[in-house]
Design brief:
It contains 10 helices and 10 strands. By secondary structure, the chain is an alpha/beta fold. Helix 1 crosses helix 7 and helix 7 crosses helix 8. The chain is globular, with a radius of gyration of 21 Å.
Length: 390
């Protein structure tokens, strides 16, 4: 793409978004065709459209970073995809998808009950799916998708679902996008990360109001498959693929003319950094307890040192993760440090012998949203304040 620069590569991003939406719709069609010979073909088309969306997004990102592309003359875009949906449109459309999936799970529960099956892993998994969808149905969901490989009841914790929730006023001046780390399932995200997002929204809204800085919304999202075990933790494909999907989702949200902050915890920081490198939607980045940025430099992140905020306790066990797995460590880049409370209840011996990786997200020094000092600092950054005050 040299010689001609279109008005904006947003057209390509919108095309990728539409491809992803069609992919999700075809997933639901394939589920309805379960048992028919056409089902595998429809699911194959769904996967192909999903991969095509990723390809289009990568090409748009590469074009935007190409010097020859930047210097080329501007021509009108030949791709006319139409305007993006409003926030109300997104909530209504995704609400319909959730209810459709909920009834699909109910039908499967009824079918198994009619066969006399009242227990076992399948019934337990379906009940997990039902409980997860019931929670989502009561929220302002701006993105919902079913993983192509996820059949009803086959994965615990509603792990086959991806979602993003809007917390706060629809016309907020400041928006915080929150990406969780490893060991997160859809159910645990709803029960822990979304309430954490609500606390951040309330804290930031209070600060913004006291300083006359407008209103705040927080968007906790789970748009990638987090690694669940220590064996998966070193693998990069989770954040590489997840960043494309996350960028696609963010491109559907009405984030223009707002102050947008990206917040990523642990493994989620690599997803955040790689997403920022692809789509550049963020004014500020907050990387919390992170081992890597998903990039190789500050330039790739698209923010300067004053707008890269890093929170890491001196005894956070994430420090022991080798830096070359997930891009450069954010603490090794020029950055603005985030104040935290002194870490407590930490046994240094755990950091030397037998570190319990499987408990990583439960250690006191790795869960920063329970730290009132860090929480207030996150809120201040979210509304553009250098100092939250007392």
């Amino acid at each position: 793409m040299t010689g001609i620069r279109y008005v904006e590569t947003a057209s390509m991003r919108r095309l990728a978004t539409r491809l992803n939406q069609c992919s999700t719709d075809l997933q639901l069609v394939a589920r309805r065709l379960s048992g028919f010979e056409e089902a595998p073909e429809v699911e194959g088309i769904s996967r192909a459209m999903h991969e095509a969306a990723r390809t289009v997004l990568r090409k748009a990102s590469a074009a935007e970073r190409d010097d020859a592309f930047k210097a080329a003359p501007i021509r009108p875009s030949p791709i006319a995809i139409g305007p993006l949906p409003t926030l109300d449109d997104l909530i209504a459309a995704n609400g319909r998808l959730i209810w459709e999936e909920l009834w699909r799970v109910v039908d499967e529960l009824n079918r198994l009950s009619s066969l006399g099956i009242v227990g076992g892993p399948m019934m337990s998994g379906l009940q997990d799916d039902y409980d997860t969808l019931a929670l989502l149905a009561g929220m302002d969901v701006v993105y919902f998708a079913v993983e192509p490989s996820s059949a009803p009841g086959t994965r615990s914790g509603g792990a086959g679902y991806r979602a993003a929730v809007w917390l706060g006023p629809p016309n907020a001046d400041h928006v915080v996008v929150m990406i969780p780390g490893m060991k997160t399932t859809t159910r645990s995200w709803l029960e822990h990360n979304v309430p954490d997002g609500r606390r951040l929204q309330e804290t930031a809204a209070e600060l913004a109001e006291s300083h006359g800085l407008g209103t705040v919304a927080v968007v906790p999202l789970l748009t990638y498959e987090p690694p669940q075990t220590i064996l998966d933790a070193p693998l990069a494909h989770f954040w590489r693929e997840g960043s494309c999907d996350t960028a696609n989702v963010l491109d559907t949200l009405p984030l223009e003319r707002r102050h947008v902050t990206g917040w990523g915890h642990s493994y989620g920081a690599a997803v955040l950094g790689a997403t920022s490198a692809i789509s550049r939607p963020f004014d500020d980045l907050i990387m919390v307890g992170a081992a890597g940025t998903g990039t190789e430099s500050l330039d790739e992140l698209g923010v300067d040192a004053d707008h890269l905020h890093v929170a890491i306790n001196w005894n956070d066990p994430i420090r022991l993760v080798p830096n070359d797995y997930h891009g450069v460590n954010p603490a090794a880049l020029p950055h603005s440090p985030v104040p935290t409370s002194p870490a407590t209840d930490f046994d240094p011996w755990k950091a030397i012998v037998g570190l319990p990786w499987f408990l990583l997200d439960g250690l006191p020094d790795h869960d920063y949203l329970d730290d009132p000092v860090a929480m207030r600092a996150f809120a201040a950054i979210s509304v553009g304040l250098d100092d939250p005050g007392p």
